Amino acid sequence: MWVVLRPSPYVCAEWEFGGYPYWLQNEDGLVVRSKEAKYLNEYRNYIKEVGRQVAHLQVNHGGNILMVQIENEYGCYGRGQGVS
Q1: How far apart are CA 28 and CA 40, in angstroms?
Q2: Residue 57, Cβ neighbours under 10 Å: how many?
Q3: How many CA within 13 A on the CB side of residue 61?
Q4: Single pTM value for the model
């Protein structure tokens, strides 16, 4: 079976708070899905660790992961709320 892996913390608009844990709303200075430095740093650490754990499972290494989607609909919002 082939896999399109979607490990991102933001899964989709159909999930409450996009799949993020609710406690993130209470983190001082943290603006999820933004260019805010604290968020980008934490996201970078998270996605690097995911990559480290699944690298050997990619199709080019004999695994069944075809693609990895790291964000869903990022940049679909007004300026300042994503990459546009």
Answers
A1: 15
A2: 13
A3: 7
A4: 0.69
What pLDDT shows up at residue 58?
A: 96
Report the candidate in 2, 19, 3 with the shortest Cα–Cα distance to residue 73.
Answer: 19
Question: Looking up tokens 């490990």, which residue turns up?
Answer: 7
State how far the Cα of 58 lies from the Cα of 51, in Å rounded to an integer.
10
4 phi and psi angles, rounded to 5 deg: -110, 105
Length of the chain: 84
Mean pLDDT of the chain: 80
Which is higher by pLDDT, 78 or 25? 25
